[in-house]
Amino acid sequence: MSDKLQALETALDAFSTVPSLEEMPRRTLADKGIDGPTAAHVIEEVHTPFNLAYLTFTTGSSAFQNIVGVVHSEISGRCAVARTLFEKLGSGPQAKMLVTYPPLVNVFAADALRDCGVEWNFLRRSSRDALIVQACQEQPNIVLGESSFLRASLEQATKMGLKDEMPKNTILLTAGTPLDQELLPVAEEYGYAVHDLFGCQEFGWLTVDGVPLRDDITLAPSPRGDGYREFVVGGLPMGDSFVISKTGHVCNPEGKIITYRRERTYPEYEVVVLATTAHSANTVEKASRTILRIKGRVVKVSKDLQTNAPATKLALLPGLPANELEEFEPIVIEGPVATKLFDDIVQAQADLQKSAKTDPAWIKGR
C-alpha cells in the first residue's frame, strides 16, 4: 500500500463522519419493546430510515402480512390513545401487563406504554402452558392477547387444577382477532373483566368495547349496506365495515360499534384530496404516495387541489369504474379534527423536505 493510500485510510478511520456498519445506530426488538418470542416469525435485521419511528407488519390473519411504517408525528396520537385506554380500564401507572403476542405492542408503540407508566413483558414461549406458568408466577394486572388463546388457556388451567393459583381481579384485554364470545363465561368464573380492543398496525388502537379511542374517527356509509358503517381514521378508510348496534357491544352496552362483526368493505373507498393546509401540492402528492406504501390506502390528489386552505378536505369514492361513479355522491371529510392522521403524515413529509441534505435522513452516500 502506498504512503498516500495509507494516509487516506488513516484519515478515514480518524475523521470520517459516515459510520461503518459496526458504528450504525441500532433499533433492537428491546428498543421497540417487542422483545418476546413468537412461533410465526424469524428475526431479520433491516435498514430502517431515520424518518420512520419504526417498521412493523400487519397481522396477516387472512393474507400475507404487509409492511407498515409509522412516522414520528403519529407517536403523540398513539400516546394519547393509550392514556385514554388505561383510564377507561382503571389501570394506573405501574400496572403489570403480560403480552401473549409481542407485535401487539407495536399497535400501541412502546413509547405510549412508557408514557403511561405501564410495565409489560412477554411469554417466555408462545404457548398456553407458558401463559399459565407466568400468570401464576407474576400475577399480572392485565393480560393482552387473542381471545380464543386466552379462553383455551383458562380452560386448560381449570382442568389442571391451577385455577386458585391464577391471578385475581385481572383484566383480559383481547385483541388481534374478532372477540371469541365463549371467553366471557369462562372469564366470569375467574372473576376477570374482559375488554375487546380493536385496532391495526397502520392506525393504532381505535376502539375498546365498541367505544372510539380517537377523536378523528368517522363512521361513513358503507357499500355493505345500511346496517354497516365504514371505519375512517383521520380521513383514511380502513377497508373494514362494522355493524352499528342500538343495543350495544357485548362488553359494554354504551359501545355501538360491533367490532366482532367485521366485513371487508367492497368496493373499498379511495381518497381524493380536495383541499390541504399545506403550502405545496407537491408535498401532498409525495405524502399520498407514502400513504399507499406504508398504510396501504389509495390517496389521490385532485387536479383542482386548494393549498393553504383553513382545513383539509378529503373526498371518499369507492374504487369503481368511472362510468359507475356518476351516480355516487362523494363522502366529504373536513378537518382539522376528522383529518388528523392524514395531516400528521403530510406534516411528516413537509418536515422531511425542510431538513438539510446533510441530515442523516437524506444521506445515502457521499
Give descriptors for this structure.
366 residues; alpha/beta; seven-stranded mixed sheet; four-stranded antiparallel sheet; 26% strand
Fold and architecture overview:
The protein is an alpha/beta fold. 30% of the residues lie in helices and 26% in strands. The chain contains 11 helices and 17 strands. The protein has helices at residues 3-15, 29-32, 75-89, 104-108, 110-116, 128-138, 147-159, 183-190, 281-295, 322-325, 340-354, and strands spanning 52-57, 67-71, 96-99, 119-122, 142-145, 171-174, 193-200, 204-208, 211-212, 217-221, 228-233, 236-244, 257-264, 269-275, 299-306, 313-318, 331-334. It has a 7-stranded mixed β-sheet with strand order 4-3-5-6-7-8-9. The protein has a 4-stranded antiparallel β-sheet with strand order 10-11-12-13. Helix 7 packs across helix 8 (183-190). The two termini are 24 Å apart. The mean pLDDT is 91.
